[in-house]
């Protein structure tokens, strides 16, 4: 889960564990696409359907903004879900912008290939 502290975002232990498992499984580290959501969220369900063709290119991490530990995210995004961050950076909200997602994934894949 992601949490917000001051002006910096930090990855909590749970996502770091996913990152480490991914790192050990492959030389190529998949980016983490974080979906800020709640239950129910029909727009989030629709967004997840749109993401299916891309699912092999990232790790999807869902953050339920209604949980007490995510109250900062709730205050920030309560009227805007679904909201997406890619590797901890804001990417898009309300709907999946496939061209923006594709562009950012390609950028990260090219950076990874160059390492």
TrEMBL record:
Electron transport as UniProt keyword: yes
Pfam families in the cross-refs: Glrx-like (PF05768)
Keyword annotations: Electron transport, Transport
Signal peptide positions on this chain: none
InterPro entries associated with the record: Glutaredoxin-like, Glutaredoxin-like_YDR286C, Thioredoxin-like_sf
Key word Kinase present: no
Superkingdom of origin: Eukaryota
Family recorded in the similarity comment: Belongs to the glutaredoxin family.
Protein name: Glutaredoxin-like protein
């Amino acid at each position: 889960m992601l949490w917000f502290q001051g002006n910096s975002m930090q990855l909590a232990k749970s996502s770091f564990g996913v990152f480490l498992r991914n790192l050990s499984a492959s030389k190529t580290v998949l980016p983490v696409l974080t979906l800020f959501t709640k239950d129910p969220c029909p727009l989030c369900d629709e967004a997840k359907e749109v993401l299916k063709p891309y699912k092999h290119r990232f790790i999807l991490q869902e953050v339920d903004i209604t949980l007490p530990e995510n109250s900062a995210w709730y205050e920030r995004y309560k009227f805007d879900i679904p909201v997406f961050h890619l590797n901890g950076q804001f990417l898009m909200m309300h709907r999946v912008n496939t061209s923006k997602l594709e562009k950012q994934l390609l950028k990260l894949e090219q950076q990874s290939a160059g390492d």
